[in-house]
Design brief:
44% of the residues lie in helices and 4% in strands. With 218 residues, it is mainly alpha-helical. The termini are far apart. Strand 3 and strand 4 form a beta hairpin. Helix 1 packs antiparallel against helix 2.
Length: 218
């Protein structure tokens, strides 16, 4: 059984820490640890770590923690975090391990990353947050977990609020959760449209009713 509480990260601001916790760059092919993570081979991951393999090597496929998180390898996520993997180390586009886990709906990995201090409102170069990715995919349990951890429900991307993106996708349940968390029903995009306008343009009466009940159009 994995235990998120009491997770202690190695290193501190005044101590550079072991060499295997330094941020590095390498190709995935030259990183055996990454291959072991992809195979979910925890024994090999331990062996690589004990041999001094860097836990924070960034490759074209992400870091070992990123790969474990994206694939929902919860035990490996817990192990890598416990050994000092950096939870917020992102790729060149700013995608973090938390975003990767959230976008795939891996709730347990999301919980472990949050417990390790991952920034819940980190934003990628493209404007994605963990909540954005989870919401767009309809991963309700992850959405609720992120909101409980303080995720900003009123983020926007491409000029539209998160609620507008969800409404545009026709996801009634996720829209309901976002509204309950305080999503701004009156947000107006650069073209003058609201979430209610989008619901009506798609003839989605259920979403239209939900938005009106939440105060849209008043």
């Amino acid at each position: 059984m994995l235990i998120a509480s009491g997770l202690v990260l190695a290193g501190c601001a005044s101590d550079p820490g072991p060499a295997n916790l330094e941020n590095r760059h390498a190709s995935a092919r030259a990183t055996p640890l990454l291959g072991a993570v992809q195979d979910a081979d925890i024994d090999e991951v331990r062996a690589q770590r004990e041999a001094g393999a860097s836990l924070n090597t960034l490759t074209e496929q992400g870091t070992p923690l990123y790969v474990a998180s994206e694939n929902g390898h919860d035990e490996l996520v817990w192990y890598l975090l416990r050994e000092g993997a950096a939870p917020d180390l992102a790729d060149e586009s700013g995608i973090t391990s938390l975003m990767a886990a959230a976008g795939r709906g891996h709730r347990r990995s999301v919980q472990l990353l949050l417990a390790a201090g991952a920034r819940v409102n980190a934003t990628s170069a493209g404007g994605d947050t963990a909540l954005f990715l989870a919401s767009r995919e309809g991963h309700l349990s992850v959405v609720k977990t992120l909101l409980s951890a303080g995720a900003n429900v009123n983020v926007s991307q491409d000029g539209r609020s998160l609620l507008m993106h969800v409404v545009n996708g026709g996801d009634l349940l996720t829209a309901e959760v976002l509204l309950a968390a305080g999503a701004d029903v009156a947000f107006i995009d650069e073209h003058g449209y609201t979430a209610l306008d989008l619901a009506r343009s798609r003839n989605n009466e259920d979403l239209e009713m939900l938005l009106v009940q939440a105060g849209a159009g008043s």
